[in-house]
Amino acid sequence: MPDEFVTHEMWPFECLRCLHVWEVRYVVKHLSDAYGNEADIWLSGGVPAPPPWAGTSCPGCGAYHVTWFPNGYLARHPELVSGPEPEPEPVRVPAVTRVPARAPAARRSARPGRLAVALGVPLALFVGYEVYINLGAVHMGH
After folding, report:
1. pLDDT, tens digit, for every residue of 64-116?
2. What is the largest CA-CA distance in the chain?
3. Is 137 left (phi over 0), alpha (psi -120 to 50) or beta?
4. What pairs with residue 45 in β-bridges?
5. What is the C-alpha radius of gyration for the chain, rounded to an integer number of angstroms?
6. Judging by beta carbons within 10 Å of its beta carbon (0-12, 13-18, 19+), is residue 85 exposed, middle or buried?
7. Which is the most buried residue in 13, 17, 41, 76, by most CB within 10 A?
8. CA distance linking residue 55 with residue 24, whole number of Å
9. SS3 of 115-136
């Protein structure tokens, strides 16, 4: 007969790179079917997540070199848990200054067209290369 039960687990972690300590609360759904097959579904924040031992990364530095403590370890050792992070200072944004509009195309200063340069230089190189190769072939007698 299919069976299902849910457990709530708190897993404490420590990053071995930056020594950041944190806890993650998981909801684990234990499922079994009529044939005796069992499966566990791990949820973190209501979203399916990999089990804690499979690829947990540090939220501080992103490293995957992470270890975990026994359940309830951080409750017995509160000195390991960092205090709440301070509120960030408000960012002051400078006032928006008005940018003058660009001059119409007829009143712009005379500059070589960028499109002409962008197309002309590669075309000149290609034609020069072809002329060089063809003159070399004629000179070598091929």
Report:
1. 889 887 776 766 667 666 656 567 677 777 777 777 766 565 555 556 677 77
2. 91
3. alpha
4. none
5. 34
6. exposed
7. 13
8. 14
9. HHHHHHHHHHHHHHHHHHHHHH
H or E element, residue 39: strand 38-44
Pair 24, 13: CB distance under 8 Å: yes
Joined tokens for residue 37:
């097959």
Residue 56 is encoded by which pair of tokens? 């947990």
The predicted structure's pLDDT at residue 81: 63
Please determine, for residue 27, whether its predicted confidence score (pLDDT) is greater than 70: yes
Residue appearing with tokens 């007969």: 1
Are the beta carbons of 66 and 13 closer than 8 angstroms? yes
- Name the burial class of residue 60, with classes exposed (0-12), middle (13-18) and buried (19+) by CB atoms within 10 angstroms of its CB: middle
Q: Angle at CA 133, nearest 5°, toward 129 and 136? A: 140
